[in-house]
Amino acid sequence: MSSHYYRLDSAESTLLLISIEQAIPTVIYYGSRLNSELDAATAETLVSDSIPNAMLDSRVNISLLPENSRGFFGEAGLQGHRDGSNFTHRFELTEALRETDKLVFTATDDTAGLQITTTINCDSDSNVFSWTHSLVNLVDSHYTVNALSCPSIPTSLDMDQLITLHGRWGKEFQQQKTELAAGRFQINNRRGRTSHEYFPGLFLGQDSTNELSGKAFAAHLGWSGNYCMMIESLSECERYFQCGELLLPGEMILAKGQEYTTPTLYTTTSNNGFSTLSQQLHQFARNNILPTWTRSTRPVHSNSWEAMYFDLNTDSLKELVDAAHATGAERFVLDDGWFMGRRNDQAGLGDWQVDPAVFPDGLGPLVEHVRSKGMQFGLWFEPEMVNPDSALFREHPEWVLQYQPYPLVPGRYQEVLDLSQPALFEYLFTAMSSLVAKHKIDYIKWDMNRDTLNAGSNLHPSQHKQVTAVYALMSALNEAHPSLEIESCASGGGRADFGVLQHTGRVWTSDNIDPIERISIQRGFSMFFPPEIMGAHIGSGTAHLTGRQTSLDTRAIVALQGQTGFEFDSRLLNNTQRKVVKHYTDIYKANRDWQSSAKLWRLPSKQDCLHTQGLVSEDQSKSLWTVTSDGSHLHASAGRLKLHGLIPDANYTITCLNNNLSELAGFARALPEWLIENNLTLTGELLMQMGILLPYMPPQTALLLNCQKSSTKIYE
Known about the structure:
One of its GO terms (biological process) is carbohydrate catabolic process. This is Alpha-galactosidase. Pfam families: Glyco_hydro_36C, Glyco_hydro_36N, Melibiase. By secondary structure, the chain is α+β, with helices and mostly antiparallel strands. The chain folds into three domains: 3-48 and 59-289, Beta-galactosidase, Chain A, domain 5 (Distorted Sandwich), CATH 2.70.98; 292-597, Aldolase class I (TIM Barrel), CATH 3.20.20; 600-709, Immunoglobulin-like (Sandwich). The chain contains 14 helices and 40 strands. The strands form nine sheets. Strands 5, 6, 7, 8, 11, 12, 14, 15, 19 and 20 form a ten-stranded antiparallel beta sheet that branches. Helix 4 (314-327) packs parallel to helix 5 and helix 7 runs parallel beside helix 8 (463-480). It is globular. 49% of the residues are buried.
């Protein structure tokens, strides 16, 4: 048999592939960097498994595009037909191009009249690989694509510990752990956005893998629409991972010469646990995905929503701006309620003109007042939505995304607009762009508050076009206003992925800012996304979504895990509370620049209720650590905290930055000895191997620790 062998290396990983008898290549190794070399003959020997009884007479390999015509009984990578014929395919490799950090394979099926191109890119610095498939129709008749997966990746049977993210509104990014066995684990998302329900990504590990050690694999589909993600185990071979866009019936029909490209799949591997996977994804996002403005200093936000809801007027807003500025805010965001007819959530969406009933003199006086404080100004939009009670809907009911013979399915008193329609696209761009230009708006909070159903346009399915049109509208605004920043909000964290983040650079992680709920929400978010793009605001003493009451210190410390801000009404703070908020805001400002390139370490939870994470600077000279408690620990003491990511032979001084340390002291007869002085200098090795003693931490408390490289000599 003839075979060809291909290799792609990053700084930490090696990818090996083989093509046998001109078949589409198969991944034969993807893991830690190999020093050894292989030739094609040896590689073929290593993948030529036994041929079991009662099976097909040939060996079956899981290629980048698995094909039933080659004996594969799992999910074919391409599924489609030509008016019922050409329902299967058998591609032959015609070209393989190798660049330093890239492999491109082209394969053709002359019988089916199709060409498939597989592109694999490797970012050597971050150890993240990017994978896509592109399909071209080569002949005159139309080809219907039912499904085209991203390149399929085999996974070994010992990688059977699966972590996925699930949730709902107000409880996003919840980790779910599953032990894989025979059969299939599959997620189908049909909600028209990344969704609260499922996240398009997963972590895989062995039984012994944890945050800090063990073999691990991560995958993420960078797409903000419908998708399918699955892991399947077949008796003929090991497991394989496959994902791609979930197309509506008849949504992707290719005429001659037309092409369909899958969303990009991003993967990375590690032998050092799950936190290392996250660090690699964070570095990749910072260097390759996020807009450049995310590398600038991230301002402290003050948002009007929970402070005022729809009860808006210029004078009250100016008072809120003054109070927020006095507390440390640097950007003021006017949330929902400023546009025509928007006195509640049942009317006005789509009419993006300033309502003179609320702002008789327009937004100008408010914007000028914000600027007079040296603050930036942001504005809320929900461009993809319309209320039936709006001028836009009454004038253009045909602009709604719908399958017209059937009635609309309302959600939150609103419908989804069909952004693939050029006239609507132009209306939205003009309405938004003119306001941005007129008021020199710095920031848009871009919301999307409902899922899509029956996503039709002119009686044809249009969910794919809807997602690409949203990207195009964001891109058009970015191009027209290069300094404009956009936040992705979708009832909180319902649209967060590497697709939308190429146009936005901040995610409103959840509408739930109860700090105890935020512990798990933000921990799940951090698996894939860097902390500096995570919207994390300090809420009111009584959380609006849960009714839970928590201390101001706990709320502020949890908010310091991301880009911090205020959701509370700053006007209601007394002097003591204002000093507390300013204390933590000043800590954020002193550390935010180095945190934008920091490594995040999630430490294993202690006693099922103590959750620790730390941000360590790129040069390992400084770090901030948060310990949060969401329950009562079984043992009378909280135990030791062992830091991570420090230089072993460097000296570090560690201090507690809590404003309420004296209150924490009251929950035990005495604090740990080092906390009484609140100053301890140890080597990095001792901090990582022996650690420090934590104080007793009752439920709903939080600890903030600062660790700085020190020139202080120890033991003198």
